[in-house]
Specification:
CATH superfamily of the largest domain: Tetratricopeptide repeat domain
Order of helices and strands: HHHHHHHHEEHEHHHHHHHHHHH
Shape: elongated
CATH architecture of the largest domain: Alpha Horseshoe
Largest sheet: 3 strands, antiparallel
Number of strands: 3
Length: 414
């Protein structure tokens, strides 16, 4: 009785295996005839049998499924992903056939992705480079290209995913480069070793040598920080920038990025220190010096702010922002004078003090005028500054200038 059960089970298993072989042959015939939709449908019917298949039949199943979705290269983006996935599931068989298909796919993807990037089709390039990485996971450069294409095309979700994966893998982008100098342009160019040697032999290039490329880690972290900041994730952005600064402490752009984040978080003292650090690296950067003027002004350090704005104006006499802010600082001192004037009585001493304050107020106007007039020279349509000058000229009795600024305002507003 026991022996009969074993025979019965063995017979059932033989029938099951025969059915698999028969179905797989039908699928194989459909693939050979390029009936890929038929092949997919037949494979779907085989799915329930997959767990019980022998390994050699599983290999054939995954190979045929990969071919069906690849469709001789005509498959959609999603189909190509599925084709790669199924080819990767093949364990022992079809190595040569899969190798040839993958190489053809690599060549096509590489050409298409490069062309898409060059023609600003960045989102298509992202998909291509991601597929190349799936095909050659040992070459993380393709993942870097995918991330770079994504950030250029403002696909920040893909950029974050790929940049974070690169950091997880420890990617640095450091590689040995084979370089030579172009005889015609004088520029040093990088090649593969065989290309460089060929060009040197042909005489188009000279001075062959080797060098190690710079690490891309700081760039990756900096780009991540930019995306986090763009997404409103300021804590993540600050952490990323600080990490990048450890790798490249003299990068003034990174210093500025951290400074701006600190300012946004209300840490004005830290912001000030970072801006001062950046100025040490770039002492004539008027944007940095101007920013220190803004912080000093917000902190009530009026004379310090004036020093910074004066420095900017000495380096860039037509810097409208510095000129405008300098005038605003000077005129801002008027409020205290007006408050005191309004609080005075009618005694002789009060009248004397009133005249003193009035003279100081006129002095403020006269100090602000050169900065405001300089703004009008650069921006003659600046109606706000023109109106300020109109009021000042009227207050100090500059009739000729008053009439000129009125005419200017009329031309602006009409």
């Amino acid at each position: 009785m026991k022996k009969q059960v074993i025979v019965a089970l063995a017979l059932a298993f033989s029938v099951f295996t025969f059915a698999q072989k028969k179905e797989l042959k039908t699928v194989e015939k459909a693939v050979k005839n390029n009936d890929f939709s038929v092949a997919k449908s037949l494979l779907e019917q085989l799915d329930p049998m997959l767990s019980g298949m022998e390994d050699k039949y599983k290999d054939k199943y995954y190979f045929l499924k990969g071919q069906a979705f690849y469709a001789n290269g005509a498959g959609s983006d999603e189909d190509i992903d599925l084709a790669i996935e199924n080819f990767d599931n093949v364990k022992d068989s079809y190595k040569v056939e899969i190798g040839e298909i993958k190489q053809n796919l690599i060549n096509t993807l590489l050409t298409d992705s490069n062309e898409q990037y060059q023609s600003a089709q960045y989102l298509d390039a992202v998909k291509g480079f991601e597929k190349l990485y799936k095909l050659i996971p040992s070459d993380t450069t393709y993942l870097y290209y995918a991330a770079s294409s994504a950030i250029t095309g403002k696909d920040y979700d893909s950029a974050i995913k790929n940049y974070e994966k690169l950091l997880e893998l420890g990617y640095t982008g450091i590689e040995k480069q084979y370089v030579a100098t172009n005889v015609e342009t004088g520029e040093v160019e990088a090649f593969s070793k065989s290309q460089r040697d060929l060009f040197v032999k042909a005489g188009s290039h000279i001075k062959p040598s080797e060098r190690v490329s710079e690490s891309k880690t700081a760039e990756i972290v900096k780009n991540l920080a930019f995306i986090y900041l763009n997404n409103g994730e300021s804590e993540k952005a600050l952490a990323a920038v600080q990490e990048a600064r450890k790798m490249d402490p003299t990068d003034s752009n990174l210093i500025l990025s951290e400074a701006n984040l600190q300012y946004k978080n209300g840490n004005k003292e830290t912001y000030k220190k970072l801006i001062e650090e950046a100025i040490q690296l770039d002492p004539e950067n008027t944007d940095l010096i101007f920013n220190l003027g803004v912080v000093a002004s917000e902190n009530g350090e009026i004379e310090k702010a004036k020093e910074y704005y004066d420095k900017v104006i000495s380096l860039e006499p037509k810097n409208v922002n510095a000129l405008t802010n300098m005038a605003a600082l000077i005129l801002g001192q008027e409020n205290a004078l007006i408050d005191e004037m309004n609080g005075l009585g009618t005694s002789n001493a009060d009248n004397i003090r009133y005249d003193e304050l009035k003279e100081k107020r006129t002095g403020l106007y006269e100090s602000a005028i050169p900065y405001l007039e300089a703004v009008i020279e650069v921006e003659p349509n600046n109606s706000q500054v023109a109106k300020t000058l109109l009021n000042i000229y009227g207050a100090i009795g500059e009739t000729e200038k008053l009439n000129a600024i009125k005419a200017l305002l009329d031309s602006i507003e009409n």
